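Hi everyone, sorry if this is the wrong subforum. Our group has a chain we'd like a structural model of before ordering constructs, and none of us has done structure prediction before. Sequence below.
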Amino acid sequence: MTTRKERDKYRSVSVLEDAGKVQWRYGHPPDFSSVNQLFEEGQTKVWPEGSLEETVQNAIKSWEMEFSHKIRLQDFKTTNPEKFKLFVNGREGLSAEETLRLGSYNALLKNSLPQEFQYYKPEEESFESSHDAFRSALPRGFAWEILSVYSGPPVIAFKFRHWGYFEGTFKGHAPTGEMVQFLGLGVLKVDESLRAEEIEIYYDPGELFGGLLKGPPISETKTTDSGDNTAEKQSCPFTH
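Answer:
Right subforum, don't worry. Here is the predicted structure as tokens:
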């Protein structure tokens, strides 16, 4: 496991470099020990050190780390803020400022479905509430791995897997303890310094929400003989 005193081998940008100058969202550099353990226990691919696959995997994890934990674009090392655009499932691109304001969950979960068919409504969520919801549902973290890389820089096409264990409540649904995951495709365009200029992501949100909505609604869970509602007693840990 990694600690804040060690360099994170799964991210190309160290949280320790210039740590005192960076404005961190939660007041300090993040600790990825829990999600790194989840990754090591559940990864299906182990890429050789220095390979293109490992390089892309670590670069994407570093990109996500900066958007989730840094609050100023001037502190980013993985992104070209003047040119950056995030495209999800063919929708209109989001700038670096918009992505940072919305948060990675809201940016990736925006959709054009009618309101009555939306499992999750990003426009009703803030950065903080969206991250709280998924940290509660997936207390050990939400691991990410590269499955394949089809082309090298400057335009990198790849296939990925995202997974975690539904061990906390999610939007009124009791946890199942089961793995939830989804697969997707991405295209990453980088500049000569390997900073992201454009990212395109394609995936089916139904794969994720199918697992998160499988738990029974907490209001409908049965009360035990002692009068305690077991679902209501489920904790909502806030770990990362």
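For your construct planning: The beta strands are 85-88, 94-95, 143-149, 155-165, 179-190, 196-203. Confidence is low (pLDDT under 50) at residues 1-5, 221-240.
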